[in-house]
Amino acid sequence: MAQTDLTTASVVAHNDNILHADVDQEVVALSVTSGTCYGLNAVGSRIWHLMATPVRVGDLCETLQKEFDVDHDTCEREVLDLLKEALAEGMIKIAASAPAERARERA
Amino acid sequence: MPFDYFAYGLRIRSDWELPEFAGLPGAAGLPLVRVCRGSVGSIASPRHEDLASIVGDDDCILTVPGVARYRVRHGEDIIVETIAGADPARLRVLLSGTALSVLCLQRGLLPLHAGGIEAGRRTIAFAGRSGAGKSTLCAHFENGGYAILSDDVCMIDVRREHSVVWPGPPRMRLRPDAAAMLERDLAGATAQNDGAEKLLFATRPRSRLQPVPLERIYVLGTDAVAAPTSPEPLSGTKALEALWSNTYCGSLLGPMGRASQHFVQCLQLLRHVEVFGASRRWGWHHFVDEAARLEGHFGAAAIAHRARVAAAG
Fold first, then answer.
1. With an 8 Å Cβ cutoff, are B241 and A28 in contact?
2. Which of A14, A16, A32, A36 is most worth mutating to test chain B (most B CB atoms within 10 A of its CB)?
3. In what order do the strands lie in the sheet with A26-31?
């Protein structure tokens, strides 16, 4: 799937070749393949933690709206921009399925 | 009769003479590593295989065309299978650098592509890719009275309260023009048929084998700058990138299954060790001034450290 196909219906997760750790309450991530290191700010770190298991982008935005003072449209737009960038950098992947998605399918 | 040597915090027992390793005093209780010649055999069900390396569980075969194949196992054994016609000195350089770095990775050490000197009972390391000037700087500082801990690769143990560097083999490799500029006695050097045509020199003898706490790392840039520039502290992510990219044999971390452990070790190291980017004006006519700038930078830190120790004591 191309990164431009990323939507709120997409299910995203950490890429397997990314190592990460919390340093001073913020996430530091490193690509084993490229050696590139990424430092995430507080919001980016929270998004990263929410992707510890595959998560639908729409669900991720809902969680962030409850935790941060941000309206629906701004949240979705900024999260999608960030995730597209992370996808292009190889930090995350589009997962095939997720528990939340399967639950929805069962319903 | 085996030959015993001491380097990188190890007792290295070899079935043939390794003159480059001779000179460091021994110490009791160090882990034993055996080096012998023979067939490297094969690794059943390797997890990674390419032209240069075959990697299994704590088991690695490294191939250097025209020189040798090295099998490094369990952080304890190195088997060297010489290729006919190989230069013995080149073979030993690769044993000291590449093969022992892989062995140290297997033992949980962090091999940094860096030269290290001892300043005020602290290690100052100069990291950077080949040609960055690590050995030349170390030799210059040795001329100025500092002791060289290790040339080209610093074996760092981050498992202690403070990361330490173990002394390496008491030898260093210099390009002939650098050796001449540093007024080294060329008669005492051994030629190295290693492509870089470097000369091998003995470093000043050490009386102790103890590791030395690592204070800071300067990452030497290879792009020349026009004006004098002070070393710049690297931020957390940049410092982490610098450690990762300057890890000796770092390309094997993933295949060896040690990437996660190494990542954690780098983060541990950064809790206590400062990392600076050091750009310099290039050319011999700037060398002494640029080295003095670096010395002023780490010298000030050594003075501050001594003051902290005195205040605490």
1. no
2. A32
3. A18-23, A26-31, A37-39
Q: How confident is the model at residue A100 (pLDDT cuts 50, 70, 90)?
A: low
Instruction: Check pLDDT > 70 for residue B233.
Output: yes
> What pLDDT shows up at residue A23?
83
B254 contacts in A (CB within 8 Å)?
A: 17, 32-33
How many domains, chain B? 1
Here the tokens at position B74 are: 């369990």
C-alpha count within 13 angstroms, C-beta hemisphere, residue B199: 20
Nearest to B47 by CA among B57, B38, B37: B57
Instruction: Tell me which residue in B236, B244, B267 faces A35 most closely, judged by beta carbons.
Output: B244
| Domain boundaries, position B283 | 3-312
The CATH code of the domain that includes B183 is 3.40.50.300
Nearest to B112 by CA among B247, B270, B274, B273: B247
Helix axes B236-245, B259-272, angle to 10 degrees: 130
Q: Which residues of A touch B245 (CB under 8 A)?
A: 35
Closest Cα of chain B to A10: distance in Å? 28
Q: Is the pTM of this model over 0.90?
A: no
Residue B282's pLDDT band (cuts 50, 70, 90)? confident
Cα–Cα distance for residue pair A33/A26, rounded to 1 Å: 22
SS3 B142: helix
Pick from A30, A33, A38: CB nearest B263: A30
pLDDT digits (tens, 9 = 90+) for B134-167: 999 999 999 999 999 999 999 999 998 899 999 9
Percent of chain A surpassing pLDDT 90: 65
Beta-carbon count within 10 A of B165 CB? 29
Task: Give whichever of A93-97, B189-193, B211-215 has the largest mean pLDDT.
Answer: B211-215
B103, B75 Cβ separation under 8 angstroms: yes
B254 and A32: CB-CB below 8 Å? yes
Token code pair at residue B195 = 């492509």
Average pLDDT of the residues in A80-107 = 76
Q: Give, as one character, the DSSP assignment of residue B37.
A: E
B236–A28 C-beta distance less than 8 A: yes
Interface residue ranges in chain B relative to chain A, Cβ cutoff 8 Å: 235-238, 240-241, 244-245, 250, 253-254, 259-260, 263-264, 267
Instruction: Give the pLDDT of residue A102.
Output: 52
Contacts with B268 from chain A: Cβ below 8 Å: none
